[in-house]
Structure formats: structure tokens, C-alpha cells
Amino acid sequence: MTSLHWKRFVWFCLCLTLFHPAWSADGIEIPGYAPATGVERSYRVQKATETDMSFWFDKPGASTMTMRGAFRQRMTVLSRNEDGMRLRWSLSADLPEGMAGLADSYQMNLLYRNSLTAYGTAALELETDLNGNPRNVFSVDQIVARMRDMAANGPRGVPASGGSAARESGLDDIINNIEANPLQIAAALVPEAQLLATGQSYQAETMEIGQASATLRDEDYGGVSVPVTSTWTLESTDAIARTATLSLSEAADAAAFSQSQQPAIANLMSGFAERAKGLTSDQLASVKRASKSRRVELVVSLNDGSTLEASEIVTVEAGGTTLRTYTHILREDMPASLPLPAVLAAKDLQTPDLHIEPLPSSKAGPGILDELSIPPAPPKASPTVAPDNDGPKAIAPVSLEVKSAKVVSAPTSFGSELDIMLTPASAAKFQDFTQAAVGEITQVLINDKIVIEPRILTPITGGHIVISKPDSKLLQDMAEQLTLPEAKILVRLRP
Questions:
Q1: I need a surface site. Which of 134, 324, 377, 477 has the fewest CB within 10 A?
Q2: pLDDT (tens digit, 9 = 90+) per residue, 278-326?
Q3: Where do the H-state alpha helices sit in 301-436?
Q4: Facing residues of 230 across strands?
Q5: β-strand 307-318 against 398-400: which pairing, if any?
Q6: Distance, CA of 204 to CA of 31 (rounded, Å)
Q7: Can you give the pLDDT at residue 214?
Q8: What residues are paired with 420 via a beta bridge?
Q9: 3-state percent breakdown (helix, strand, coil) of the chain, nearest 5
Q10: How far is it, in rounded angstroms, from Cα 28 to Cα 23?
Q11: What percent of the chain has pLDDT over 90?
Q12: In sequence order, which residues have a C-beta less than 8 Å from that of residue 340 and are 6 or more positions away?
């Protein structure tokens, strides 16, 4: 993440400076970051993601999905010297006080609880630079050992035959990634550390209100070098509160970023092949464009240079889809001054039914990992719904045959997907099933094992089933299973 000092370092080493303001003697001095050691600070963290793929569906907004999270994390600076600092982050997946009644609309908290269980830690100690950017994670060996034990023995200490539980839970890939880059632990569990460090500089800087400073750097996206312009501005100061408000705007070069996203866009269009055939030339040109932007606002203390509040919005548009992420961090001993995005303040949201179950802790009973090797109960037979029946739906399961199955990049390059193409006869059966099941939660089973539980938002034509998982190895294993002669897919209503 950028900091005021880092901007100058990048300008010297990596970036092309577009312009630099002439600092005046009567500008505002933002002090160097000098946090007190041994003092625990609590932060209220709110996050949300919005995903919109309504371009590809007949019903506008039918595929818009929002996820949200709210947390209370605590940080202590344990020590500091001329080279860097040592921080302790105390982590929790619980909702902050006063938000207990809204728990049903905060799916990220349960996902985060699963992460803490998998990593086997409720606290993380980091070595950082003098701005607070993580550069090392302590106790990596213990975390990896805990994860290897979980991969080998399962959550209740029951040996996993042949490592199948480790493969199916994705722990093998996670462990390998951590060993290759231990900082992924910090990125996964305390991204707040880097966002807070964005506004902190180890040395004092003098800025003028309204004066902008811009730099250009390159970021790598799948082998394509994409220029990114970053612009810093001192927006205002508050003499009573002793704070300064800074803004950072970043935009990726549209042409280069669009080029980097073409493989992902092509994969997306193949998933909506029939609809893509009907696109006009203007629509096709729009689908092939991509953009990425980031807007950050930071409230920095004029006493010790620390970030007291941060608000970040990142927007990615590609292939007719939009992904937007929101983050707001507030140190609890300070009043809020930045406007909260509406998605974070809303009391009620139309949220996806992710059917997430927490991983079992050492004190918990059986959980989802215990059930990975247990085949689900056979589907309940029920008559197919009559076309003119206005009563409750009773939709029979359908067994489907696979023409091909391959792992492809996700539409916005955030992971991988398994793209399953059905035979023509099965595609027709699947279309009839999804047409009858609009609005219902369904289950897709591969070889009698539930792999996803999607809500059907619109009839699915073209014979494609797409499965998204963070574990690409697991997706590849599924693809290999579907090439076997005895492979079968069953789709049914969730019992």
C-alpha cells in the first residue's frame, strides 16, 4: 500500500512522476508516524462486496449479490526501533457491540471465523516497516504445523485416508501458498494493517490544502504491465480535533487493463454463448472493455501521524460485470468523520444464501469437514411440476450427462471456475428444471457429493454449469472426475 514516504520512494525507483506540488513554508505539516508502544487500540472494521452480472440476464438486477462483514479488531505496537516495529493484532469474527441483531446479513463474519479456525490462531504478530506495512509474520512454523495437522487428521483428530480431506478442503494449496509467501497470512487475516499504513509516513511531510501530487506505476496482471496513476490530495484539516483528511485516487490505464482481462472476458462470454451471439457491435465493444479504480480517504492524527479512520472503495468492471468492494476502519476512541457508504449503513440487505457452516473448533462437535466423505442422503422423489400449476412447486431431480469439463479463469481474474458443458439432451433437461425452479435454492451433486447450492435467479440456457471455488486443485479434481465413464451430475431442490 502507498504511504506519503513510499510515494517518493516509488517515484525514484519505479514510477514516472507526472507532477509534484511546490510546498510552501506555510503549508500543513503532517507528523511522522510515532505510535505509543504497549497501548492497545481497538478498530471497528466494516466491509462489503457488491457483484452485478445483470447484463447477462433477462431480468435487470437479477444477479446482483451483496455480502457484508463487521468486525472489532485490536492492535498493539509491542516495540519500535530505527528499522521497524513489531505489532500484535488480536482477531475476532464476532460482530461489534450494538450490531448483534443484524447478524444474518453479515456472511463475511462466518467466512472469517472459518479462516481463523483453519489458521489456528486468534492473534497475529507482525514485523512491519516504520509506516506499519507488514514485511514478516511471526510464528509461521506453528501456523503451518497446525494446518498440516488439520489436513492430516481432520478437525476431530480422525486420520484422513490418503490425504483426501486435505485436498477437498483446499488446505494443501493454502499451506503451499503460505510457505511460498508467509505474508499471505497477513493479507488474509489483517488487511487492515496495510490500509492503515497507507496514510502513515515515518517522516514528517508538509502539504498544502487542495494541492495534488500524482505518480504513475506499473502493476502486473497476468503478464500484462498495466500503468496505474495515483493522485494524493490534502482535502482539509481540523484544528480542534488535530486531524488532517487525505484522499488517494488510483486508476488503471483502461486500454492496458482491458488487454489484461481479455482471457477472462472470453471465458465469461463462452459461459453465456447463446446470449453473446445476440450482442450488437456496441454491446460487444462494451463487454470487451475493462477498468479498475480505487478511492481512499484517510483521517490522520496531527499529534502522532497515525491513521484514525480510513474508507476505501475499489471498483472493477470487466465483461459486462461489476465487482465493488468497500472497507471502512475507525479507531474506536475517535469520532467518525468520513461518510459511511450506504451498503455498510443499511439495516436490511437482499443477501445471498451461502449456506456456510463454521469449521469446528477443538471444543465444537462435528462440522462441515467431518461430512466431506459422507455421501448425502438420496434425493427425495417428487413429481414434476405441471406447467399451469399455481400451487407450491414440487420439482423432480434431474440426472445430467457431461459433454466436457474444464477449469478456466474467473470473469474478473479473482480465482478459477469449473466450466461444465452438458450434452444437448441434458442441456434441455437442465433448462426445463431451472425454469421451474426460479427463486428456489438447489443443490448440484457430483458423484453423490454436494458441490454448490445456488439459488436459481433465471432459467439457465446453453447447457453450462459453472462452479467457483478458491481452491483450483479441487476444481481440477472435479473436472477429472467428470471425465470418468461412471461420472454423474444430479441437480435437485435443496431438501
A1: 377
A2: 889 898 999 999 999 999 999 999 999 999 999 999 999 999 999 999 9
A3: 342-345, 424-436
A4: 215, 250
A5: unpaired
A6: 4
A7: 77
A8: 405, 465
A9: 30, 35, 40
A10: 9
A11: 31
A12: 46, 311, 328
Degrees, nearest 5: CA angle 96-99-101 = 140
Counting runs of H as helices and runs of E as strands, what totals does the chain give? 13, 21
* Burial status of residue 299 (CB atoms within 10 A of its CB: 0-12, 13-18, 19 or more): buried
Q: In percent, how much of the chain has pLDDT > 70? A: 75
**What is the rounded CA–CA span in Å between residue 261 and residue 257?**
6
Give the per-residue pLDDT at 372. 31
Element housing 292 (H / E): strand 290-301
Beta bridge partners of 110: none
Q: What global pTM score does this model have? A: 0.66
Strand partners, 229: 216, 251
Separation between Cα atoms, residue 94 and residue 45, nearest integer Å: 11
Rg (CA), the chain: 25
| The three three-digit cell numbers of residue 60, written as one number | 435487470
Residue 183's SS3 state is helix
**CA gap 123, 106 in Å, rounded:** 22
Say whether pLDDT at 276 is over 80: yes
The residues pairing with 126 across neighbouring beta strands, listed in sequence order, are 87, 137
* CA dist list (Å): 246 to 198, 236, 283, 340: 10, 7, 38, 16
- What DSSP state is assigned to residue 455? B
Its sign, for the CA torsion 10, 12, 14, 16, is positive
Q: Which residue has the higher pLDDT, 471 or 230?
A: 230
- What pLDDT score does 31 carry? 94
Classified as helix, coil or strand, 119 is helix
Q: What pLDDT, on the 0 to 100 scale, is given for residue 287?
A: 92
Phi then psi for residue 124, to 5 deg, are -140, 130
Q: The C-alpha cell of 231 is what?
A: 493522485
Query: How would you class 266 by CB atoms within 10 Å of its CB: exposed for 0-12, middle for 13-18, buried for 19 or more?
Result: middle
Q: Are 296 and 312 in contact (CB under 8 A)?
A: yes
- 86-141 pLDDT, tens digit per residue, is 999 999 998 888 776 555 568 888 889 888 888 888 999 999 999 998 989 998 99
pLDDT tens, residue by residue, 331-380? 999 999 999 998 888 776 655 555 555 665 544 443 333 333 333 344 44
What pLDDT, on the 0 to 100 scale, is given for residue 124?
Answer: 94
Q: How far, in Å, CA of 383 to CA of 13, rounded? A: 69
CA distances from 225 to 6, 254, 261, 294 (A): 20, 12, 12, 18
Residue 32 has phi, psi (to 5 degrees) of -65, 150
